[in-house]
Amino acid sequence: MTRRLVIVVRADPVICGHSGEARNLAEAAVTRGFDDVRIVTWPIERLEQAGLPLKPLDTVLPYSAGITVERPAPVGDYKVVDGRYIGGVIGRLVELFTDGVPTVAMSLYLSPHTTAVSDAVAVARRTGLPVDVVTIAEAVGSDITNVVRQCVAEGRFGAAAHVLEGYLASDVCVAVSQYTKDLIVEEAGRLDALHGTAYAARCAERVEVSYPAIDAGAFLHLDPEEIDDRLARRGLERDGYVLSLSRLAHAKGIDDLIEGFAASGAGDKKLVIVGRGPEERELREFAARSSAADRIHFLTDVDDAEKPFLFAGSFAYVLATKPRPEFIETFGITLAEKALAGGGPSITTTTGGVGEAVGDTALIVDVDAPEQIAASIDRIRAMSPLERRDREERARAYARRFDRASVFDVLFARVAQLERLAA
Length: 423
Hints:
Radius of gyration: 22 Å
Strand order of the largest sheet: 3-2-1-4-5-6-7
Oligomer: single chain
Number of strands: 13
Strand content: 5-15%
């Protein structure tokens, strides 16, 4: 064994764009000289207890040879209050960092994953055993809004400092969008203003942007006959439906989409809402009260293999995401995936980092504006085939920059530079 990549993340079966990103980085790594790739994540029962939206286990796609998913068992018994699972993760990382294999350790989400890696590296180095580890920490966005921002608001300096120090202790610090970097610097600045620290300047200097990695090959060059066959199994036809694919949460603007769809002139179309999530029951009840209720369909069993075909066959794709205290869209991975697959134009907002995911290729609406969603659907109905094709080609060309091989190469060029400097 010559080189290892360890990725610490909430991995499959969690329904989350960044669990898919971790998979894509792992798959790219095995084509780039890493002969041992480990995804270190949480036991299934802990993910279920947390209430996270999960895919059915039998729909999770297998990983390539050379990629191992590890779910360390908890450490201790019930007396270790809420620390048993993180203890298991940190303990396993220490073992991986001290077995003599040169390792790159990447964490997605600063809390708890980057703090776990930072703690494990510190322990590993104190053991006196040989340690050859380069660390990459990726801030996704909700790790700032849900942790650092909350700590600042509640005056909990120590907890905020723990997250930021773990981040800045990493060899490479990245954020999934420029918006996310700006958010980090902004929240760090608020902490500085209260306590006289210098986190904003340190983050502004250290943090670079690394967009989420997407498997473009899974979405390109789809067989038209297979698209039609896959759609027929769902009772769908090409261009016969408006599509939403996301966690079922109010932050995704699904209620606005339902209202806008019902108000549009798309009486001959269905609305297909794909996903699972914490607000599924409320959204189903909202849809049932809609004047278009008989044309709204929820699909909760779509796997990663089927997703590209639903994108490709859609009349339009809508992500009406909106900022909420618990969540802000810091990129919009599904928008890039949709652009690669083709299909009708996307309708979205400019919340967070969405603009970086779509460039000028989508129809933009304001948040909380179902009437604008209705108008955009009607605008797509009025488009000529030539305009639709031009939009599809421009969107696909823009989204190719997020292919996992390109993203991986740029990110790991930074690692190689550090290694050269250390040699």
